[in-house]
Amino acid sequence: MALLEINHVKKTYKVRKFGHSYRLLAVNDVSFSVEKGKCVGLVGESGCGKSTLGRLITGLERPTEGEVCFTGTPIHPRDQHSKKLKFARDIQMVFQDSYDAVNPRFTASQIIEEPLKNLTQMSAIQRKEKVEQLLGQVGIPVGEKDKYALEFSGGQLQRVCIARALASGPQMLVLDEPLSSLDVSVQAQILNLLHDIKEELDLSYLLISHDLEAIYYLADAVVVMYGGQVMEQIDDIGFFNDMMHPYTRMLLSSTPAYQKKNKDDAQAEMIWMDLGVQKEGYQGCPYYGRCHLAVPECENNRPQMKEIRPGHHVACHQIK
């Protein structure tokens, strides 16, 4: 049984614009799973619904439809506070902006100790020992435990945030763009740290990112989202360079490391103009307006995920 299962999850938001209100589909019928000890990379440009899905998984938001299950139990029970508390221990999140993710009045020690106070029964002495052990695990000298957030560099503070996420002894981390606000050299260090921690603690990861190189390095499987929907999914990272959806190929062609491999693909387009987000009730493919393979069927009928070979699924009318 998978550690985490996402079953036909939808999330809509009520939007009011120019006096008119409508419901916007941020996540639309998404399904996939995360196995114990594995890392699933969730890829897509800004606005595609990745972070919303991350908040649904961690219980910060509730799905409009569908369910998120952890070890076979729904994460959003109706009146079962004890189960919510258990999931808070088992699933932790590392946020994109480490400075916004912490209380600036807290020291590193207080930041890491907070989940120990709220989610465990440790004594003060035990919490102090655990904080020091976690600081060493993420590469922060114990002598810096009394520094405040603004006294750390971005990479150091992200390490503190990772230590905080590990404090409760979780089984899974949701990593929401953990590298995007860091320098390139620091990104590599944090990526190596996450890899080592995953192997050491046998953790499961959901790595949310638009950085395909980071996904390729850390992930075991990949899910590609656009407009709130899953466009392509591979269960084995070995298929990474063989992904076929037009949107995935566009993402690959816009990544310097893969431009030579994908020189026959269409030139990367400006991706900020159309995020593919649709109003509730839209029945077509969200990528229709940008796809060079689009046919009238794409506008009127949403493509369903189909297996084109074992462990490789694509949602596209034109790919057989």
What does this structure look like?
The protein has helices at 50-57, 81-90, 108-119, 124-137, 154-166, 184-201, 212-218, 246-253, 296-300, and strands spanning 4-17, 20-34, 39-43, 65-70, 73-74, 91-94, 172-176, 204-209, 221-226, 229-234, 278-279, 306-309, 312-314. With 320 residues, it is of the alpha/beta class. 30% of the residues lie in helices and 24% in strands. It contains 9 helices and 13 strands. The protein is globular. A hairpin with a 2-residue loop joins strand 1 (4-17) and strand 2. Residues 266-273 have low confidence and may be disordered. It has one domain (4-102, 170-314): P-loop containing nucleotide triphosphate hydrolases (Rossmann fold, 3-Layer(aba) Sandwich), CATH 3.40.50.
Query: How many helices does DSSP assign?
Result: 9
The name of the CATH architecture is: 3-Layer(aba) Sandwich
| Main beta-sheet annotation | 8 strands, mixed
- Nearest-angstrom radius of gyration? 20 Å
User: What do we call the CATH topology?
Assistant: Rossmann fold
Give the CATH H-level superfamily: P-loop containing nucleotide triphosphate hydrolases
The unreliable regions are: 266-273
Number of structural units classed as domains: 1
In CATH's first tier, which class applies? Answer: Alpha Beta
What's the number of extended β-strand segments? Answer: 13
Termini distance?
30 Å
The percentage helix is 25-40%
What class, by secondary structure content?
alpha/beta
